[in-house]
Amino acid sequence: MNKINNHLSYKMEGDKSTNNSDDYYKNVKLVGFVKTDSETLSGYKNDGFQWSSADNLSSYPSSYHRENDISSPGKVLGGDTVVPVYPDSVNRCCTRKVLYKRLPILQWLPKYTVGDHGISDLVAGITVGLTVIPQAIAFANVAGLPPQIGLYSSFMACFVYTIFGSCKDPALGPTAIMAIMTRENIHDMGPEFAILLCFITGIVQLIMGFAQLGFLIDFISGPVSAGFTSAAAIVIATSQLKDLLGINIKANSFIGFWDQLAMHIREISVGDGTLGITCMVVLLLLRKMKDIQVGPLDVKDKTTVQRMVSSIIWLISTARNIIVVVFCAALGYMYKEHGNLPFKLSSHVESGLPSFRPPPFESRVGNETYNFVEMASKLGSGILVVPLLSILENISLAKFFSDGKTVDATQEMLALGASNLISSFVGSMPISGALSRGAVNNASGVKTTFGGVYTGIIVIIALQFFTPYLVYIPKAALAAVIIAAVVFMVELQVVKPMWRTKKIDLVPAFATFLCSLLIRLEVGIVVGIAINVIILLYTLARPSIHVEKQQSEFGYEYLVITPDRSLVFPSVEYVRAVVSKAGLKQGLSSIPVVMDCRHIQGADFTAAKGVKSLIDDFVKRNQPLVFYNVKPSVISIFQGVRPTEFNCCVTEQQLHERLKGYYYSRMQTLTL
């Protein structure tokens, strides 16, 4: 039976009770199975160790191999047969369940029908396609890249995400955040650096997906995200003012831009300014147009005409960008043909589809040639910050439209990584899911990710046949499209809730906002994360400790001290000081002190040393110190440093018996 027990000691991981009449193992983690003649090993009451021949052992975690403890499968030891688990990790990764999880298209494609899914996806795909074309050209301008780069970034990801995407609403492509981050990291070095950044972004995201590193996104808190997004929106809008007003300004910072604007204020073009401001007003009015209510609130109560009018109003509001851009392009064409152009037009757009080839691993800028390492070095922190922000943007979008369903963050990272990686082969800049296009997708009634196929086809048609006409789009109109979109990214509405709930959250929010605005965007988000971590570590190092004097039914007093979290090295000295001080002042250096450890889930070596020193302090002044509600795993850690004495009680009855003993012992001492 010893051999069985040895096997179980490593087959089950958990906290062992010293009382064999209780369940021998507490909080057991199942890492293997034991088969006995009676199907359940006597003396072990954990139901998790019941076994039957029908169980599929390959689905359970693998065990650790220890030759001294495990006999070969099927060998009988005292009537009990030990059956260790040897699952094949490769086979486990290649099951149908995993395949369907990593290729979500296999789940919905067999059930796909034209009536239930096809029409909705077609309408949504075309609508998003008409939205993404003007946005792509404008975002390329934000990134400081040729207009065609924006269009190159808008079609390949649609096809890839159709296969790997787990959420129907995200419409991958260039976004405002990705555009401004690309501009800030390529340092005007040219499209080759932007394409390489897209490639590296895809690689990093795939690595994060395979390594299950999605938890890193959790370090970007809501306040930090709000501060960063708001600052990015202001930086983007500021960068577009030069095109909106028709002046030539080149500045590398937010403050520098406004300084340059003050110097060139008299150079504002009346034509560009008038057109740009008019376009902004029209775009904002059309955006508000979708809120117009036609007929009753309940759709079922509306007449056919009312439903048709509502649909037309919604379509006009949704397609406002393409309507304004097409109208302004027609205006630009007319003015250019007559030779009297009052505003600036877009630069030349290369016609045709891009060739499918690897991203550039070497680039020549001026008279200097950069190899891959030098290009990656030029991109700097962007090779990590851009992938993280891309993931954050896409997962936030997926959660927003998830209707309470769980979002598979790992699959979204893999899908986004594959999209960025493959898109870099067609000359794309870094991409993600845009909230504006996701909202259009959702409002259009998209059913599956197949809507992205129609969006990609629309962009390909535009590249193949309409690029010669894109040159007539006024720069002021594109600037108006961007400003009208990003102005709603400034999250002023979160300030009041943060003030009402937890005011300290305003510190990382405003720090992120100011650093992103005045220094650099990636600096801002790093500063915000650092402040959040500092606040987190401070709360870890300074736990809340409740001190209360209680009196038992027998009349003796004792002090109960309850820390609200685990003991780890940053907090141990603080806890020791508080407990010792409470024992001296409130406990009068004599009455027993009970340390209630119900909230202490774990401890480390430093904490154990601190507890040992605390026990020594109480022993020196002959004041009882009792540990109550201590978990077995914590007891073993505390006992590992061999304290002078370690008084521990498991039940309330044991605690009162021990305190009663202290009380009578003290009374006898005082009597003598």
Automatic annotation (TrEMBL):
Compartment(s) where it occurs, according to its Swiss-Prot or TrEMBL record: Membrane
Protein name: Sodium-independent sulfate anion transporter
Membrane topology summary: Multi-pass membrane protein
Lineage, highest ranks first: Eukaryota, Metazoa, Ecdysozoa, Arthropoda, Hexapoda
GO BP annotation list: transmembrane transport
Keywords from the UniProt entry: Membrane, Transmembrane, Transmembrane helix
Keyword Membrane found: yes
Record carries keyword Glycosyltransferase: no
One Pfam family per UniProt: Sulfate_transp
GO cellular component: membrane
Residue spans crossing the bilayer: 193-217, 268-286, 312-335, 379-401, 413-431, 451-471, 476-495, 507-540
InterPro entries from the UniProt entry: SLC26A/SulP_dom, SLC26A/SulP_fam, STAS_dom_sf
PANTHER family hit by this protein: SULFATE TRANSPORTER
